[in-house]
Amino acid sequence: MQVQQVRLYSSKNGKENAVPEISIDNMYPVQEEIHSMSYKKVMRNVPQSIVLLTSAMFQTDTNSWLKRGVTCSSLLSVSLKPPILSFCLNRPSRMHDLLLQSQQFAINILGKHQAKLVDLFSSPAQDGLDQFLGIPHHVSKEGLPVLFDTPVLLCKTHCAHNVGDHSVWYGMVTGTLHENKMVEPVLHYYGSYHDIGERILTVPRCVFTQGPVISRLQIAWHCIKRHGLEGSLYCMKERFQKQFQSKEKDWHETIAMFYLKKVSIALKAEQNSEQTFEEFLQKNNNLVNLNDHLLHHYSVELISSPEAKEKYVPPDQKPFNSLH
């Protein structure tokens, strides 16, 4: 199998750089039937969001637009600067041929209320029949069919190449529609359609919840030993900015105080001013799992709120009266 040469934009200088041709012939010889079946079985565990890919081209012989749509479960964001996405299409296909001519397309992000469209556009398009007949949609100024009240990415073809039995297409995003609308996507998982389900309870992403906990604990321990609990918050923020190059948006006031209060409780229980941080941590090794304890004291709604990020708010689940 040969992979066609692809030209992509370099993020460093904005100029085109050729990606070397690569060949994977005889790299890993496997029995094709077994490899494909095993591959499919494992990939069924990967939920894939389903979108509607649409394109159109004006036909001068009929003085009309040829419009096509096909469901796609391989959409990926490739680059932000410039904004480039990718998807895969089976070959041969009518959409593949249309994209070669039109060089433009739209990505419609389907919501679960549009799940019936998945099967409709999964079936092969028939000549002479309008796939969009009876489907609420409008035509963009570029001539692309887009669904009503649906988040849409408008794209120009950036490049394409063939890999195995599929073609990989890259699109430059040139515009968006309904970008502020939030939909509950349709997911393909284990051969059927699903919604995204319940939210998994996690602590907010901030400078405290990314990276080793021990280094954060050491800063809290140092600041309390030096300034006491009342004067330790400013010290901690200053140390974080220097040590982790953290910015204001990464700071979380309530989680900072959570660390300080937990370390302060442990220090009071020890009452040993001569011990080192390593000795302190050895006796209080449960503090290593401090981020897991956070949701024992705070609800996800409160700890994730803008108010809790900007200023300290007391716990709404369990008070700070112990190490646990």
Automatic annotation (TrEMBL):
Pfam families registered for this protein in UniProt: Flavin_Reduct
| SMART domains reported in the protein's UniProt record | Flavin_Reduct
Ribosomal protein among the record's keywords? no
* GO molecular function terms noted in the UniProt entry: FMN binding; riboflavin reductase (NADPH) activity
Tell me the keywords, alphabetical order: Oxidoreductase
Q: Kindly indicate whether the keyword S-adenosyl-L-methionine belongs to this entry.
A: no
Q: Which Gene3D superfamilies match?
A: Electron Transport, Fmn-binding Protein, Chain A (2.30.110.10)
Q: Which residues form the Flavin reductase like domain?
A: 43-195
Q: What is this protein called?
A: Flavin reductase like domain-containing protein
The organism encoding this protein is: Acanthosepion pharaonis
